[in-house]
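Data deposition worksheet. Section B asks for the primary sequence of the deposited chain exactly as it was used as input, without tags or linkers unless they were present during the calculation. Section C holds the resulting structure in token form. Section D is free text for depositor observations; keep each observation to a single sentence. Incomplete worksheets are returned to the depositor.
Section A, Depositor: J.P.
Section B:
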Amino acid sequence: MKTKLLDSVENKSLKKTVPYFEIGDMVDVHCRITEGNKTRVQVFGGTVIARKGRGINETFTVRRVVADEGVERIFPINSPNVVDIRPVRSGKARRAKLYYLRDRTGKGVRLSHRHSEHTVSK
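Section C:
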């Protein structure tokens, strides 16, 4: 009973359409950033290494390497500050969490390509 009540309240705040992406995919996340009284959209691109939660609490972690330093950000899927999620390339992963990529550098970070139907050409 309690779960049904919570789900009905949460469904009002869920996004209508969430693009399909899996663990190992490379995505571009468009985030709304507020600086003072100005807002702008910033793109954070990287590999999805984790996805967890359900409903309103669902989050995903994106990792990229900038100047030989690993940067990870956790994004709530249903946040109004996440404007868009665009899958760029699908990667082949055999596990649910790709935390082992933190220890790898160079070409060892790349995942093999899974299939081309989810890729977006630029």
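Section D:
The first helix runs from residue 2 to 10.
The CA atoms of residues 46 and 66 lie 10 Å apart.
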